[in-house]
Amino acid sequence: MELFLDILLVITSALLVLLVLLHRAKGGGLSSLFGGGVQSSLSGSTVVEKNLDRITLFTAAVWLIAILGIGLEIKFS
Q: Which GO molecular function annotation, any one, does this entry have (predicted)?
């Protein structure tokens, strides 16, 4: 079980990083400082962005469950 949770944690960590990087910048943070602030006003929330949000939240939930599972396994072993 410990090996499964470790592998799940590594996979979900890498996937979570990739999914977060795929998101479009919505604020005027550091991305606008380097020229990423020029966007079309017509770029609304599309189905692809909503699905990306859902997949990211699901992956984050699996990541959190893996973290909690590893912590409980360490505590009780």
A: protein-transporting ATPase activity
pLDDT band at 12 (very low <50, low <70, confident <90, very high): very high
Inform me whether the pLDDT recorded for 43 exceeds 80: no
Residue 71 is encoded by which pair of tokens? Answer: 């912590």
Q: Residue 62 — left, alpha, or beta (φ > 0 → left; ψ -120 to 50 → alpha)?
A: alpha
Name the strand (E) or helix (H) holding 48: helix 47-75
Q: Would you list the domain boundaries of the chain?
A: 1-21+47-77
Q: Please state, in angstroms and rounded to a whole number, the distance separating the CA atoms of residues 44 and 48.
A: 11
Answer whether residue 10 shows pLDDT above 90.
yes
φ and ψ of 65, to 5 deg: -65, -40
Beta strand ranges found along 1-77 (DSSP E):
none
- Decide: 70 and 5 in contact? Cβ < 8 Å: yes
